Amino acid sequence: MTLEQIEELLASWSEPKFRAGQVYRQLYVNLARRPEYMTDLSKDLRSKLLEETRMETLRFDKVLTCDKDMTKKALFHLPDGNPGECVLMVYKDRATVCVSSQSGCPMACAFCATGKLGFLCDLTPGQMIEQVLWAERELRGMGRKVGTGAQPTQKNRFPRLLSNIVFMGMGEPFNNYDQWWEAVERLHDPDGFNMGARGFTVSTVGLIPGIDRLADAPYAINLAVSLHAPNDELRFDMMPVNKRYPIADLIDSVRSYTGKTGRRVSFEYILLQEKNDTPELARQLAGLLTNPDGSHLLCHVNLIPWNHVPGTPLERSQRARVDIFQKELSNAGIPCTVRIERGTEIGAACGQLAGANAG
Ligand code: SAH
Question: For 43, 68, 102, 210, which has the most beta carbons within 10 A of its beta carbon?
Answer without folding.
Answer: 102
